[in-house]
Design goal:
With 415 residues, this protein is α+β, with helices and mostly antiparallel strands. The chain is built from twelve helices and 23 strands. It has two domains: 21-309, BirA Bifunctional Protein, domain 2 (2-Layer Sandwich); 324-414, Rossmann fold (3-Layer(aba) Sandwich), CATH 3.40.50. Strands 3, 7, 8, 9, 10, 11, 12, 13 and 16 form a nine-stranded mixed beta sheet that branches. Strands 20-19-21-22-23 form a five-stranded mixed beta sheet, with helices on both faces. A three-stranded antiparallel beta sheet has the order 4-6-5. The protein binds one RNA strand of 74 nucleotides through residues 11-19, 36-37, 85, 89-91, 107-108, 110, 139, 141-143, 145, 150, 158, 198-202, 206, 217-218, 258, 261, 263, 265, 291, 293, 329-332, 362-371, 373, 382, 384-386, 394.
RNA sequence: CGGGCUGUAGUAUACCGGUAGUACGUCUGGUUUGGGACCAGAUAGACUGGGUUCGAUUCCCAGCAGCCCGACCA
């Protein structure tokens, strides 16, 4: 994209009412615009990041055999009454039509997916089955905060699985957890699978995937030696205690943000709706279900929150809105510089490299550098009179200090 | 939802019971052009409603909004 044509405006200031790093950086660098507390517009740069995260999530969900679909956000009151959520879930957004008909905005989709799937899948032969979507969720939070970390409207991947037995559920549950680890690793994050309460969902423990950050809202205890991790809400253990897995390690307490979770739903939803399947013996049974969430927009916030320096964001390559930030410094030789940078831009596009091209003619070098650092694209390539004198460009990675001259012929090889 | 703080321009602020000034930003023009350059000009503001008062941005009340602590958190 040419910056002169792109809808991208960075800002030199940001309101002091936005105290978290992710909220400030994302707002200032032009990724998001806050409409009200907990509700954001995702600007072109921000949308690219959401799409990149979604792409990785989608690939790993497809890899465990789940089918993507898209369910409604506007729900009839009745399905929420069926499961008891209408009266018991306080974060459920409820709205009235002009004829006083009542609706809910989806904050999770068990109420939609259970009848949807079980009205079509009624034989053990069709199970197991998993479906997922990436869609907007609404939660009537009393206190939205921390930039993208706790919103009233947010993008979430939610998967639902249906199984003939607890054993088969357990098998898939383990696979899903592994897929989650893959996702977070690909995003450049270290997530800890944390034992936590099942909430109103389940009596059993659930696993929350936690990323350590002070901007988070959960306190977790994690082992320094093994992968044991537990939410303090369900344990008597304290920081410094020995790991209960007898690995010899000690537990450390830390603040974390929940970027994903997996739940064993048991047979609740099949029973609530009175929908099940016919087993091999011809008997009706309720499936064992699981649900698996990943907060896509929250992940964007967590990444910005944890990967930055005083100048701006440091996006991992898999997530970055563009791979390369090509910057032309026209100087006194605008004609030649732009001619060379236009050519390189075209070549990069031609070979499929995602590049943001700062082709602004009247912007100072310092301002371009500051914008580039703020936005945080992993590779910066500069073309100027100076570099052209050597028939080269200057290449610098966002997370490194040193830059190097690379000849125009070889630029493609390093990107 | 309980408790608290705060609402003056995009941001940060000043003054004031007699209807607002500065800086930065932004925009335009010019000079610049390797780390947010310079000059000139312009732009833009008292959250909303009620009350007290001759007069309210200022004092009082209510609402709304934002932020903080807690609670909550599928």
């Amino acid at each position: 994209m040419r910056q002169t044509k792109y809808f991208l405006k960075t800002s030199k200031t940001v309101s002091e009412d936005e105290p978290t790093v992710n909220g400030r950086l994302l707002e200032q660098a032009g990724f998001v615009s806050k409409l009200m507390a907990g509700v954001y517009t995702y600007l072109p740069l921000g949308l690219r990041v959401l799409n990149n995260i979604s792409k990785i999530v989608r690939e790993e969900m497809n890899a465990v055999g789940a089918s993507e679909l898209l369910m409604p956000m506007l729900h009839p009151k009745e399905i929420w009454q069926t499961t008891g959520g209408w009266d018991n879930i306080d974060v459920l957004f409820k709205i009235n039509s002009r004829t006083e008909k009542e609706y809910a905005l989806g904050q999770s989709e068990e109420e939609v997916v259970t009848p949807l799937v079980l009205s079509r899948v009624q034989s053990y032969k069709d199970l197991p089955l998993a479906v997922y979507q990436i869609g907007w969720k609404f939660r009537d939070e009393l206190r939205a905060k921390s930039g993208l970390l706790r919103g009233r409207e947010f993008l979430m991947k939610d998967m639902y699985s249906f199984h003939v037995s607890q054993e088969d559920f357990d098998r898939f549950y383990a696979e899903a957890k592994q897929a989650y680890f893959k996702i977070f690793t690909r995003l450049g994050l270290t997530a800890k699978a944390t034992e936590a309460s099942g909430g109103s969902f389940s009596q059993k423990i659930s696993y929350e995937f936690m990323v350590l950050t002070d901007a988070g809202e959960d306190d977790i205890l994690y082992c320094e030696t093994c992968d044991y991790c537990v939410n303090v809400e369900i344990t008597e253990l304290k920081s410094g205690a020995s790991c209960p897995k007898s690995c010899g390690g000690l537990l450390t307490q830390g603040r974390a943000s929940e970027v994903g979770n997996v739940f064993d739903l048991g047979q609740k939803y099949g029973k609530d709706f009175g929908l099940g399947f016919t087993d091999v013996g011809g008997n009706k049974q309720y499936p064992v279900m699981g649900c698996y969430g990943i907060g896509i927009s929250r992940l964007m916030g967590v990444i910005a929150e944890t990967m930055n320096d005083p100048k701006g964001i440091l996006w991992p390559e898999n997530v970055a809105p563009f791979k390369v930030h090509l910057i032309a410094l026209p100087g006194k030789d605008a004609e030649n510089v732009f001619s060379a940078s236009d050519k390189l831009y075209a070549e990069l596009i031609e070979s499929g490299v995602e590049v943001l091209y700062d082709d602004r003619a009247d912007t100072s070098a310092g301002e371009k550098f500051a914008d580039s650092d703020l936005i945080g694209i992993p590779h910066r390539v500069i073309i100027s009179q100076k570099t052209l004198a050597d028939a080269s460009v200057e290449h610098k990675k966002r997370n490194e200090d040193k830059s190097s001259l690379v000849s125009l012929d070889q630029v493609r090889q390093i990107l």
